Amino acid sequence: MTEALPAEARILVVTPDKAGHAVICNGVAAALGGRNESVLVDPRGLYKTFAPWGPADPRTPFPQPFPDIALGSGRTAAPFLRALKKRSGGRVFTVFLHDPRAWRSAFDVIWAPEHDRLAGANVFSTLSSPHTLSPALIAGARANPDPRIAALEGPRLALLLGGPSASYKYQPDDVRELVRVAQVAAQDGYAVMVTPSRRTPVELTRLVADALAALPESRRFVWTGAGANPFLHMIANADAIVVTADSVNMVGEAAATGAPVHVFTPTGRSRKTKSFLEGMAAQGAVRPWSGRIERWSYAPIDATAAIAAEIARRYRLSKA
Predict the structure, then answer these.
(1) pTM of this prediction exceeds 0.85
(2) Which domains does the chain have, with CATH numbers?
(3) Among residues 195, 143, 197, which one has the least CA distance to residue 168?
(4) Which residue has the higher pLDDT, 154 or 138?
């Protein structure tokens, strides 16, 4: 955690009810320290349709007293942050994570990943995205793993499944290869840990689980929604990780562990994702899935603390 902000600093996290936006904002807020609060934005009708270009929904409640810093992400958060800045007479320091796409100069700071290629006096970038998995949390999960993960024999492989997106389509060949990933890991003596995301097709999870069904329980674990998702404990205790390329966030979280990260790319293409993965490969963190599990080492990659430190630095300058 950065100590750049006073303990009494009030930080407001503003996002729609979407996990991806909340994760990056909550990760940075935690690294900034201070007193953190959050608000979910869900504008009505045309206010949602015309976000981020239009005005904020006037029925959205604004916090009182005003926070010192407001962090937001997601297109419906952008009008809220602009309105909050105006209502506070400019006192609230507004930070947008990712490209707000409209009225960029209205924000005090914009962070964007390098592969977005966003530029401006109020913009800064890092290779990977922020997240909530701090080094302390990862170390804690290793020291005291979830019992479901602790019960597995080593070595362990974590298979992190994404799902279809605008850029990637999960074709039958992709599904078959992901099933084969699990089979290869099992044949190589790994205990296989599998977790789907919100976008993962149910059939894909079932097929992977079926492929592992003959293994003893000490060598397989598939999270299907029962109990808390032990995602952190999976990657923290993995000797190797395979993750699908459609989830940049999961790739970044996996690379924060220092474990070898193999990236499986489903059918499709994305210039931004390709650029991101090339950058992560240059740092030694990831390699394309080649059909076998490889072992290598690298320094864990985690931009969250650096992002928080730069926001805090610019905040202090604004108050000087």
Answers:
(1) yes
(2) 10-130+304-319 (3.40.50), 135-288 (3.40.50.2000)
(3) 197
(4) 138
